[in-house]
Amino acid sequence: MTLRKLGCHLARIQPRQPLLSGMRVFMARTAPQHLGRERIDPAPRMLGNDVLGNCTAAGIGNHIRATAALGGYQIAVDTDDAVRFYARSTGYVPGNPVTDQGGVEVDVLATALRAGYALADQTLFPLWGSVDTGDLNGIRNITAGLSTAYLGVRLAMADMWEDATGSLAPVWDTVTPASHGDPAPGSAGGHCLLLWDYDGTADTDPITLLTWGSQQKATWRWLRSRLMEAHGLAWRQLLPGGMLAPTGQDWDALVAANEAYLTGLP
To answer: Domain 44-235, what fold?
Structure first.
């Protein structure tokens, strides 16, 4: 058995939270029909998510690493970094398991925007914004242009099934053997993970998710059935040239939305 913890609360909406709809050109353009990154290793790490419900913090740490990988380098993010941010963004007290209650994605993202994600030698501040879960084209644009999409999903018990070696099913899908357990979305709990790439846009086309320190395959129909929230993070200082990143007025709109949100925070 491999230890894997959940910890993403049900999706919530904050007043005035940044939305990506203001990035009109970036979000409305037709996303690539195929996003292949097989030759790039995003090098995801567990970051404590095997013993803590800190998937929301681990997700941001792995987002940093995925963005760096696209630029041909890597940034050191370790478990201590993720646990420290988990504590700051959720109230977790290290060493006190009673306080290990998981996190709300928009609260965690707000903390990253306001206070940054502190590493050993630097603190990184993302811009962020949310998109409707039904906008798969927008989610693909986020993945192609901002390195990965930061998602909240409701996992089924069937998704947590392991084989004799402790490995998950090779591909998460909505059609599962009865022996894998309850297939109802949410029967296992909420989880934060990243969308890294995809082979196509049809319901059964494979996609790649970054979670629990590994790459997990799934189908688009699986994601549609589990998805409860979707966000884009922009590490503008890390994004490599040549990507389908936002430009001009779209960047200005994202900056303005984040500034307005910060102004309204208590």
So the answer is: Cathepsin B; Chain A (3.90.70)
pTM of the model: 0.97
**Torsion sign across C-alpha atoms 48, 91, 131, 66:** negative
Residues 8-32: b if buried by 16+ CB within 10 A, e if exposed: bbebeeeeebbbbbbbeebbeeebb
Residue range 9-50, pLDDT digits in tens:
999 998 889 999 999 999 999 999 999 999 999 999 999 999
Chain centroid to Cα 115, Å, comes to 19
Q: How many CB atoms lie within 10 A of CB 114?
A: 14
User: 243 by DSSP, 3-state: which?
Assistant: coil
Say which amino acid occupies 163: D
Q: Could you tell me which of 63, 231, 227 has the C-alpha nearest to residue 131?
A: 231
Residue 229 pLDDT: 98
In sequence order, the β-bridge partners of residue 208 are 197, 217
Query: Cα(134)–Cα(69) distance, rounded to whole angstroms?
Result: 28
Confidence band, pLDDT 50/70/90 cuts, at residue 266: low
- Spatial distance between the Cα atoms of 87 and 54, rounded to a whole number of angstroms: 9
